[in-house]
Fold each of these.
Amino acid sequence: MDFNTFLTTYEVQIRLGFFFGVLAIMAGWEVRAPRRALRVSKLVRWSNNLALVFLNSLLLRLLFPAAAVGMAVFAADQGWGIFNYLAVPAAVAVVVSVIALDFVIYLQHIMVHAVPALWRLHRVHHADVDFDVTTGARFHPLEIILSMLIKFATIMVLGPPVVAVIIFEVLLNGTAMFNHSNVRMPRALDRVLRWLVVTPDMHRVHHSVEDDEANSNFGFNLPWWDRLFGTYRDQPRGGHEAMTIGIHKYNSPRQVAWLPGMLVLPFLGRISSYAINRRNWDTGSGSQE
């Protein structure tokens, strides 16, 4: 069995191993050194957020059995994509592919904040009234499907090595749980780490109810894109303990903390001013709906 065959055969086990490993580490850290007090009990939030994760995983397996790794194998077999045309060292192809895929996720994140119909889906993620390790995987099923289709298109154009796709998927899932965690770390350590990876204090700003703060720090894994494209914000104006997490209009725990409410949230209400609305940035008084 060659290396690529091994990776494709055991891809699910590899990803699940990292998922549960990071989840356990961050959950333990949250218990020992929480950053903020939670508004909703862990039992309610974890049972419903993880139920949504399970539903999304089942749906993806039914719709896309081979997932992103299968698309990478198919692209290689067909000779599709830049790295299947160009003769470059394998290590270079892996590194560049991981960085390029991360950049696409950054652009996708901005897109779901900018397009009203897509913001309807993405606000399920933002409507969580607390911010902890399970928030990192809390997405509406339709957004998860859209994200997978965008990955497929990127893989077809890029032609990344299979190992690069697996590394990217593991990093994306792991860092999403890390940077959504309700953990306290020394300020000096945070300042150093956020040059290399999106930290919890960096990403928590993005979950503020204030539009100008929610429209910053879009990165999920690499922090460079926010600094490069001017979407970086160092700290929330009110401080991390005092800031309000969630969305102004949908802030009832009963409405947004339970699975049925999450599934119907995209179809409620009317988008009168969606997340990216520069008219309100100067005052920070905009309202996410």
Amino acid sequence: MFIDTHCHLNMIAPKQPLEPLKEHHFSVIEEAIEESRIADVTTIINVGTDLIESEASVLIAQRYQDVFATVGVHPTDCNQLPKSTHDTIVALKKLVSDKEYNKIVAIGEIGLDFYHKPYEEQKQKDYCRAQIELALANDLPVVIHVREAADAMLAVLEEYVSQGLRGVLHCFQQQQYVADQACNWGLLVGLDGPINYPKNAWLREIFAKIPLEHIVLETDAPFLPPQQLRGKPNRPAYIPLIAQELALLKNIDVAVVEKQTTANAIKLFGLEI
């Protein structure tokens, strides 16, 4: 079986951004989940990006046995939030306080993004640190977004490594030294559809060197479909295409990729499946 460790089923649904999830949205979500089952993607981790989408993530996880949730605030969503992290963390704490019932397996998507402008670097760092501390307090890993902020992100993460930080660098598209440091700290890296984009030969070289024990598979659906499906919405069912690309890079059987990346995901997120 395969695990999609990062997708946004709530964004596959035909709803507006920040619109709460409603009953009529579930037909499209259920269709995507059923497609995944047919493709042997038997577990999906649905990732929150703000408070509304985190609540949606929990609702989806509660409804479907093979879906789990993360809750958190994406760095680009910090712009709309107060300077103080207090109210946001209180809201996240409320969700996490019953993490078993809510099927919450991580805090995320958190991190730093200096690509989308304007941005407030200090605010992003404050929200990132507050959410890492929430994760540590609740024995949860973190799902980390990094874009044009690798050195700053490593500096923040280093503050927490000695405290037992666990997590994954989502949709990894960083340089080799970032991968090396992440692996040295025991973190994992997420492999997504862009691995087989023609322009990404440099990224393929890096993933060829990253130990399989440090890799999990992701789609980031409905974003970033594999090359052969560019122009179409991504789906968790496409995870085997990403696994096949990794098997080619490492010159191993795709069954080995399937077994190891699944084991990695189960361990990182504490899944009972």
Amino acid sequence: MTGLVGAVAQVVVVAVGSPLLVGLMRKIRARLEGRVGAGVLQTWRDLRKLCRKEAISPHGTGWVFRMAPLVLAGTALVVASVVPLVTTQSPMDGVADLFAVAALLALGSVALALGGLDTGTAFGGMGASREVTLLALVEPTILLSVFALSVRVGSTNLGEIVTAAVHDPMAVISPVSLLAAVALGVVTIAETGRIPVDNPSTHLELTMIHEAMVLEYAGPDLALIEWASGMRLFVLLGLLAGLFAPWGIATAGAGPVAVVLALVVLVFKVAVLGAGLAAGEVFMAKLRLFRIPELLAGSFMLALLAVAASYFLA
């Protein structure tokens, strides 16, 4: 029962809190740039405004274009229910595997890329090609960085990895964890389209990646994409915090009070990581498109070193 309550709590907090996280990050960036900025609730207001508009599909698009936002949001909700954010016990613990979670994240990205291709526009095809190129570099790094942590546990189940870290906190302070944390942090920025890989607040055709794929979406479809993108950001930041700062997560045998406490701790961790990411974006410039693979290749090498170190230091 505790696992079921925890899984439901995870989905609710990700679904409700992701627009608030995006609003918080925008507010912090505005304040650091010397602007007042919109309130934290502005993202929810924007989503509500988009949902009231008419859904429009460009001429010539098919079911792929219409299904892409649903697949993107659906995979984000499934990942939110299986990743150990609040509790390591879940009714879906059997599918909370590293490879399954990575596949679900990739499925959402591929669906959005296919939706951009289905429009037949130059921007859609450009954004889709760039997204798939980054995806080919990001997904192996995610697999390797988390796999490095799974070596000492003997399982690729995310719940078991986090549980082992909770019971042995000193294991987090190791060269393996440091290398894996840096690698996973870099690919989290790339996966969520943040600076220096992408700029979510620009529509310059020479730089945009994610925005190029969603230019033809409007109304509820665009709201669903924006909401799903926020959920993916929340989940990845929560996973990063759970793997390398697992304190506060409810484990097996924990009661309802522990789940509530874990929920509060999760919100605090994600807010801190989001605030740090937003503050860092103010002092960084976006990389040139042809320099991004070099950054991701460097993160891949760090993840590979983490795997090698996990065997040598085991």
